[in-house]
Every structure is written in structure tokens, then in C-alpha cells.
Specification:
8 strands, Porin, 1 helix, eight-stranded antiparallel β-barrel, elongated, mainly beta
């Protein structure tokens, strides 16, 4: 029994401290380790409820993130949103992503951030949270869906929006 615990402990220690830059054992190993980079973003199309019920919105966001720990990245995001309300919003701000589960080519992540308005539109800031799954086609290229919620701090009335986005990323 003592040998079993020693083998389990040694195995856990060796897998918990992977070397950066080591050759991946298979194509399913994702580049989400400390000192890796992610350059990516998301695209989504939603229909509003509340403030502008029935209005359609399209958003494109890009981000650059640095992995400060294995599975945890911090970075900067720039997003542009617009749609049938004739209002275009550009916003920039910090964000975090946490890859909390990984199995072969799949990885689940949660993230969030705050972006501040860059245009004279009615939106001052956007707080966002998302939960998604990424499929790593290679250790460096991933895409997948995520569910999101955004809270808009507006000059007139605050409002929220939720939906599904398509995420993409290049992990270096």
C-alpha cells in the first residue's frame, strides 16, 4: 500500500510540473501553460430583450492574453458591437481566463472582464462573464462555443444581454 501511494504521489508531482517548451506527446496537448500566449477572440449575434427588445446585435472581440500560471491567463480585450439600434460601441479593457478542465483535445474555460467605452456612444462600460469549451485542432489552434452574459453600464438605462459566441484562438 505504501508503494502504491508513492507511485501515485510521484506521478502527480511529475504531471503537475510540465516543462515549458517541451515537445507535446500528442496533438491533443494544448498550449495553456505558464508563459504561453493566446491571441484570439469571439464572434456572436444576439437578439436583445429589455431596453431594445427585438433588436439584433453583432459583436467581434479580439484579445491577447499571457498565461501567468498553468491554465490561468490575463490580458487585454478590444471589442466592437453594433446592430439594428444604429449604435456602434467600441470598448477596451482587462480580462482573465481560467482553463479548469482538460481532456485530450477538449478544454473547458471560464472568463470575465471589464471593457470601457472608447466611443461617444451611450455605453460607459461592459462587464462580461463567459463559460465555454475549446476544441484544440492542434496544440496551438482552438475554437468552440461559449455562453456569455454582458452587463452594459449606459448613460441612460443599464441593461444586460446573454447569448452564445464562437471563440477562436492561436496559442503560442
Amino acid at each position: 500500500m505504501k508503494k502504491l501511494f508513492s507511485v501515485i504521489g510521484l506521478s502527480a508531482a511529475l504531471t503537475a510540473l510540465p516543462a515549458h517548451g517541451a515537445t507535446a506527446p500528442d496533438a491533443g496537448t494544448a498550449n495553456i501553460l505558464r508563459r504561453d500566449w493566446n491571441i484570439g477572440g469571439f464572434f456572436n449575434w444576439t437578439r436583445n430583450s429589455g431596453r431594445a427588445a427585438g433588436a439584433s446585435e453583432t459583436a467581434l472581440s479580439t484579445a491577447i492574453e499571457y498565461f501567468v500560471l498553468n491554465g490561468l491567463s490575463a490580458g487585454l480585450a478590444l471589442g466592437v458591437e453594433g446592430g439594428s439600434t444604429q449604435e456602434t460601441i467600441a470598448a477596451l479593457g482587462p480580462g482573465l481566463s481560467w482553463y479548469f478542465w482538460r481532456d485530450g483535445r477538449l478544454a473547458a474555460n471560464a472568463g470575465g472582464g471589464v471593457r470601457f467605452g472608447l466611443t461617444d456612444a451611450t455605453v460607459n462600460s461592459i462587464a462580461e462573464a463567459q463559460l465555454g469549451v475549446r476544441y484544440f485542432a492542434t496544440p496551438s489552434v482552438a475554437f468552440g462555443p461559449s455562453f456569455f452574459f454582458r452587463h452594459f453600464d449606459s448613460r441612460f438605462t443599464d441593461y444586460g444581454r446573454y447569448g452564445v459566441a464562437v471563440n477562436f484562438g492561436v496559442f503560442l
